[in-house]
Structures are given as C-alpha cells and as structure tokens.
Amino acid sequence: MRLSWAVFLLTIPCARAQIAVDVNGTSVGTRPGVNFSAGTGITATCSDNPGKNRVDCSSAFNTAIVATHDSVHANENFCDSTNGTTQYTCRLASKVLTQYALGMTFLLRADASCLTSCSVNIDALGLKAIKQTDGSTDPGGGFIAGQPQWIFYDGTVFRLLSGATVAAAPAASAVDERRDVRARRVIGTMDNMTYAPTITLDVAAGDLHKTTTANSAGNATINASTGGLPGEHMWILVVNDQISSKTVTFGSSLRSTGPLTGSPGKGATVQFVSDGNAWYEIGRSQGL
To answer: DSSP characters for 181-201?
Structure first.
C-alpha cells in the first residue's frame, strides 16, 4: 500500500493543467493546450517568454490578401494647383508622395487653362508632361482652369482620362488646323452675382455674369477677380430695378469706356475681351 501511494503522489506534478478557453464570453472547451491557427488574411506568431513565465502571441494581416493603403495608392489623389501657370504644382494632403508609379491616378484641378502644352509637379518629384489619351499629343485646350480632370501616370507622362481626346484618323474635310471648336450649340454658364456696393466678379464662374440692382444698395462697383486668359470673352448683364436709375462703375482688371447708368426696369449688357492682364470693353447695349 505504501508503494502504490508513492507512485500516485509522483504522478500528480506530471499532470498538465487544464485551460478553459472562452471566445466572446462563450466557452469553447477546456484543454491542456491552446493552438493559434492563421485565418484568411490573418497571421499569428507566438514566442516563449521565460522572463515573464509566459508565451507571447501577436497577430497581423497578410498583405498578399489584405491590401494596404500604400499598396493601393501611395497617397490621397486630389492635386490642387494654384500657382497661376501651366506648370501645375501641388502637394497631396495625406502625406508626401515618394515617387511616381505606373498606374497612379490623380484628380488635378488648376487655375490656369492648358491651351497648348502643360505639365505637373506633385510633391516636388519633378515636372511630368500632361498629354491626351494617346500619350503624345498636347492637351491643346482640353484642360480648362477650375475644371478638375482625371490624369494617370503611364510611366513616362501623365495622360488625360477625360476631356480632350484624339479622334482616330479623321476625314480630311474634318481637320481644322486652326483648332477651332465645331459644335451645334455651346451654352455658357450663367453666373448670378448678388448686388452690393462692391461686387467681385469671379471670372472662372462662367462667361455670362448677371446682377439685378437693389434700391437699398444704391450705386455699385464691379471688380474682376483676375485679368482672364488671352482671347477670353465675357459678358456682364445688369438689370436695373424699377425704382430708380443705378450707376455701375467698373473697377479692378476691367478697362471700360466709363460707368454704366441704367434706367428703371431696363437692362444693359457690356462685353469684354481679355489680353491676359486685364479685360477691355468692346461693346455695350443699353435700354433693353
């Protein structure tokens, strides 16, 4: 009897401790060991930690299955250039772009139209030419100031994804060497300006700008936000209220033949053309 008890007592330290395993508060089972298995896209790594008398485990995701932000795109993709030239320059908002990579796409908005050739420099990585979808033809008016355009990097240049495109082998009669625009109808944007003693005309808001006088505001001065682009035209429509005549003076960047004095209930139009530095009046009609 003494021998059998001694054998029993010796076997007690050899028994493995049972571990109760719960997942989200629900019991899975009780076993002497726990095994961590990697799931789809998830990896598990464990190592013995004798100093802490424990085993440390950590998990991570498999980048071959779960794409990271940087592997999808090295950055957020809005590029806003405000330097006033066709050598567009911008910095991305999220973090600095480290290199141009094949297939990168960006939404580029600039404050200067690309009438012939243009380029872009993102996060000081250097200027890269912008071309039409064929990768070799300059935009030639296909990139308009204030109108965002999608571009993608082909490894050498940025190509437009929308806007100007190159037609495949046009008929000789359709070729226009002067680059005129041929269309059945072009309708410009109407910009309605709030009447006030001082009015700022946003030249990027369209070609036709309208304001209706308010008797409480009295006379007014209209200032243009910029001098426009060489050869650009615009019209200003002023509708006088029914109460009294109002005089509208043309201020910053607007070179007119003089103030415009209206008549109660009547309208007037003034047409301007830009030389790239200022707008010059080329005609007006009153008493409409």
So the answer is: ---S---PPEEEPPP-SEEEE
| Level-2 CATH architecture, domain 190-285 | Sandwich (2.60)
Question: Cβ–Cβ contacts within 10 Å for residue 108, how many?
Answer: 24
Q: Provide the pLDDT for residue 162.
A: 61
pLDDT tens per residue, range 74-112: 557 888 999 999 999 998 877 788 899 998 888 999 999
How many Å apart are CA 73 and CA 22, to the nearest integer?
Answer: 39
Phi, psi values for residue 163, rounded to 5°: 85, -130
- Give 284's strand partners: 270
- The overall pTM is greater than 0.70: no
* Whole-number Å distance between alpha carbons of 111 and 225: 12
Q: How large is the average pLDDT for residues 207-229?
A: 93
User: Whole-angstrom Cα distance, residue 262 to residue 100?
Assistant: 56
CB count, 10 Å around CB of 226? Answer: 20
Residue ranges per structural domain of the chain:
15-61, 73-160, 190-285
Burial class (CB in 10 A: 0-12, 13-18, 19+), 220: buried
Distance between CA 282 and CA 271 in Å, rounded? 6
10: helix, strand or coil: helix
Main-chain phi, psi angles of 202, to 5 degrees: -85, 105
pLDDT > 60? residue 2:
no
**142 closest CA partner among 158, 131, 156, 153:** 131
The answer to whether the CB of 206 falls within 8 A of the CB of 189 is yes
User: How many residues are listed for the chain in this entry?
Assistant: 288
Angstrom CA distances, 266 to 62, 163, 240, 261, 269, stand at 72, 40, 6, 11, 11
